[in-house]
Design goal:
This protein is α+β, with helices and mostly antiparallel strands. It has three domains: 89 residues, Uridine Diphospho-n-acetylenolpyruvylglucosamine Reductase, domain 2 (2-Layer Sandwich), CATH 3.30.43.10; 120 residues, Uridine Diphospho-n-acetylenolpyruvylglucosamine Reductase, domain 3, CATH 3.30.465; 191 residues, FAD-linked oxidase, cap domain/gating helix (Vanillyl-alcohol Oxidase, Chain A, domain 3, 3-Layer(aba) Sandwich). Helices cover 35% and strands 20% of the residues. The chain has 16 helices and 18 strands. The strands form four sheets. A seven-stranded antiparallel beta sheet has the order 15-12-14-13-17-18-16, sandwiched between helices. A hairpin with a 5-residue loop joins strand 17 and strand 18. Helix 8 crosses helix 10, helix 8 runs antiparallel to helix 13 and helix 13 packs antiparallel against helix 14. The protein is globular. It binds flavin-adenine dinucleotide. The site of flavin-adenine dinucleotide has 37 residues, from strand 3, helix 5, strand 10 and helix 12.
């Protein structure tokens, strides 16, 4: 596709739609919107616009479509696969000013929000109502960006990813038309499920300008446990056995002993430096929660865990979860002369121990600091590396390991990305994972965005 550069005439036209203070060609703003939190190559947009109304978005996108100018939506820029990098320049629509919580309907467990709302801010507002929006990617992400990437987090094992927690969307299509997909109902059998198509489409099919999200009640009873193992295979086998036993943890995370070393040193925790499972159960009665914890402990002890601590005190547990969320940041602090890169794959839960063992084998004795962690209860594994930025040999090694782990995950019946999305980094695995259905994905892209202006160079190899 031959894209057009943004011209003076284009800017004059856009100034009629959006007030001047919400348009920028300043280099610092262009720089800020040139790269997400990944190591992918930055690419400057030509113009950044902060819309505040859906009509503005519609007019800008429709104009860009006619003029063949790329448009990339930007939430908070915390993606990890280059998802929000404006590879072909053009316009970045930054949704941080379109950040109103429009309505909270407690009785229906729903909220209508604009895309720029930060999910922690929504949860802060909901807390005193005893409600929360469960997907929890850890970073200060926007709801629009979470919808873009179908983000998930430590509680997705119980409540699902963003896709399961969005009921309705208002979307601006490439031609500027505004459509609504989904309904404010728990279920619907009415026609094709366009809602689920837009969630996870990384802004390549349309731009979300409003969403109805599903809320849940904060459970009354809760218990947090830590199980530490000497070998990581047993830890991952415990994960599988916990799920196989039919227990329904609210959180089941794994951190290898190297991650534990980092959180102890950087976040001031005092965990045993072993491979560690963070496990949480909640429920409507103390007895139900206790029963789950007891069975979980039995499973972990049978697999020779060194230590099982139940009833971790609330403040301490919050410190552990906060540290888990900040792992990437803490790794950076621990290795200040190196840069962070992470991969994300997911497999059926029965294959998780095999994937863990394979990943450990590849990373155990390498000279690049490597870390294994993830949302284990969902078979979702992350491998992070701290690489010397200018060291081509280290990058080659890391890229090879990432390729091998991703290939293995796909061979085990899994996916090249459990939650971070395809962006730029995972495009090369799409054919292997999807085979012939990739052709139909492309057809859908061509149907919704025939000129290819929406977030080009993403998803497809
Ligand atoms: C420290 C750290 C920890 C993380 N942990 C997790 C984790 O546990 N789980 C997880 O899933 N992710 C995680 N992430 C990745 C990231 O936070 C999520 O992918 C998040 O959803 C991105 O949201 P954002 O607002 O930053 O979106 P952006 O990065 O700005 O955008 C994400 C994608 O959505 C598109 N987009 C943005 N707004 C819109 C819109 N209005 N309409 C249509 N498309 C839009 C963008 O074009 C892009 O393709 C982590 C990131 C960091 C830095």
């Amino acid at each position: 596709m031959e894209y057009k550069r943004v011209s003076e005439e284009d800017i004059r036209f856009i100034q009629k739609i959006v007030s001047e203070d919400r348009i920028s060609q300043g280099i610092s703003n262009l720089n800020l919107h040139s790269v997400d939190q990944s190591h992918h190559k930055p690419s400057l947009p030509e113009l950044v616009i902060w819309p505040i109304e859906e009509e503005e978005v519609s007019k800008i996108v429709s104009y860009a479509n006619e003029r063949l100018i790329p448009v990339t939506a930007w939430g908070a820029g915390t993606s990890l696969e280059g998802n929000s990098i404006p590879v072909y320049g053009g316009i970045v629509l930054d949704f941080s000013m379109m950040n109103k919580i429009l309505q909270i309907r407690e009785e229906d467990f729903q909220a209508d929000v604009q895309p720029g709302v930060i999910y922690q801010d929504l949860n802060h507002k909901l807390r005193h109502k005893g409600l929360f929006f469960p997907p929890d990617p850890g970073a200060r992400a926007s709801i629009g960006g979470m919808i873009g990437n179908n983000a998930s987090g430590i509680r997705s094992i119980r409540y699902g990813s963003t896709r399961e927690n969005v009921l309705r969307l208002k979307v601006v299509l490439a031609n500027g038309q505004i459509i609504e997909v989904g309904k404010n109902t728990q279920k619907s059998s009415s026609g094709y499920d366009l809602l689920r198509l837009f969630v996870g489409s990384e802004g390549t099919l349309g731009i979300v300008v409003e969403a109805t999200v599903r809320l849940r009640g904060i459970p009354e009873y809760f218990s947090a446990c830590l199980a530490s193992f000497r070998d990581i295979y047993s830890a991952s086998e415990a994960v599988f056995q916990i799920i196989k036993a039919g227990l329904e943890p609210t959180c089941l995370e794994i951190m290898d002993s190297r991650c534990v070393e980092v959180v102890n040193r950087i976040n001031g925790l005092n965990l045993r430096q072993l491979h560690t499972l963070i496990i949480e159960f909640d429920g409507s009665s103390k007895e139900a929660v206790k029963d789950s914890v007891d069975i979980c402990e039995q499973i972990c002890r049978e697999l020779k865990c060194e230590e099982f601590i139940s009833g971790v005190e609330r403040d301490e547990y919050k410190r552990i979860i906060d540290a888990r969320h900040l792992l990437g940041e803490s790794m950076r602090k621990y290795h200040p002369a190196r840069v962070h890169t992470v991969t994300d794959v997911a497999v059926p839960i029965s294959k998780f121990p095999e994937l863990i063992l394979f990943s450990e084998g590849l990373t155990k004795n390498i000279k690049v600091p490597a870390y294994i962690f993830g949302h284990a209860g969902e078979g979702n594994l992350h491998l992070a590396f701290m690489v010397k930025e200018q060291d081509a040999e280290e990058w080659k090694l890391v890229d090879e390991i990432k390729d091998r782990v991703t290939d293995m995950a796909i061979e085990l019946g899994g996916t090249c990305t459990g939650e971070h999305g395809v962006g730029i980094g995972k495009r090369k695995y799409m054919k292997k994972e999807h085979g012939n259905s990739l052709f139909w994905m492309k057809k859908i892209k061509e149907l919704f965005d025939p000129n290819g202006i929406l977030n080009p160079a993403k998803i497809f190899p």
